[in-house]
Design goal:
Layout (H helix, E strand, L loop, with lengths): L1 E10 L2 E11 L4 E5 L6 H9 L6 E6 L2 E2 L10 E5 L10 H11 L4 H14 L15 H13 L5 E5 L7 H18 L3 E5 L2 H7 L2 E6 L2 E6 L1 H6 L4 H7 L3 E9 L3 E4 L2 E4 L11 E6 L10 E12 L2 E6 L4 E4 L8 E5 L2 E3 L2
Parallel strand pairs: 3-8, 3-9, 6-7, 7-8
Antiparallel strand pairs: 1-2, 1-4, 4-5, 9-10, 11-12, 11-14, 12-13, 14-19, 15-16, 15-18, 16-17
Helix pairs in contact: 2-3, 2-4, 3-4
Length: about 325
Amino acid sequence: MLELRDIYKMYEGQPLLRGISFRVDVGETVCLLGASGSGKSTLLRMIAGLELPDAGQIFWDGINLASTPPHRRDFGLVFQDYALFPHLNVFDNTAFGLKMKNWTRSQITSRVHEVLELVNLRGFETRQVTDLSGGEQQRVAFARALAPRPRLLMFDEPLGALDRALREDLLNELRGILHQTRIPAIYVTHDQEEAFAIADRVLLLHDGQIVRAGNPKEVWADPKSAWAAEFLGLGNVIGGKVVNSEWKVKTGFGVFDVNCGHKHRAGEEVHLLARPFPAPNEANIVRGRAADVIFQSDRFKVTLDNGLYFYLDGEPKVGEKIEVKVKIECLG
């Protein structure tokens, strides 16, 4: 079991990570989700032992890893650019870590065949990696990381160089491999769909801190902050001011009734989330003229002249007056 306690890191004189603490349990895939430059990859490098924290501790099964060099940690790391050896074929790339551990030839052959079967590359053993597609090269990188039976797997934007369809296919395969092998994993990405598809638990990283943690359903249903709602693209984030204790909030788009568990005072500024899908049973109504209409999947994305957007079943004409009943949530 991996545990990070109160990790701090400075970068170019500025705080990059400020008190990061989390754990990864056996068989669990934890996703670090955040914008570029938020410190996600730096965290992986510190866990791998390639970089040191300025403060804080990293433990494996209760043992402090500070004095454990990278090659003794038994952690696997997969990068976006594959980092394969171009002069070696698929077999030898996959076997590299096993040779470093002085496995016997028969053990290496058996394990390489086993992991290549797992990543759907059986029969590719003698192929040069430079002759493979991007998706096939990433499968080799997966196989190489899996081969030594690591205690922990770490993925740093592993699918970022692939097209959307291939990313989805590999993501599904990788999720299946992780569930099958029960190897704990940390998956770093800035892509929300990718994170929610593979993670058992999502950690949202912003301004050097974990601002939201939970399983994908929990985080999606309750982002808890305006930044998280905007980053995840959950809908329209609206600023407003509390009118009274009966929970009316005045905004530039109207006065809304909000059922909120937070404690607010009259006059206090708050952020609200208007989900983009109509809610026929809600009392709150948004009105405006359709300024832009785009067909997406099975609905029409309608952007109003006030900047708010919604997904509707019907197609209004540009300039048409419309009103939408919406669910309004308080983000604090």
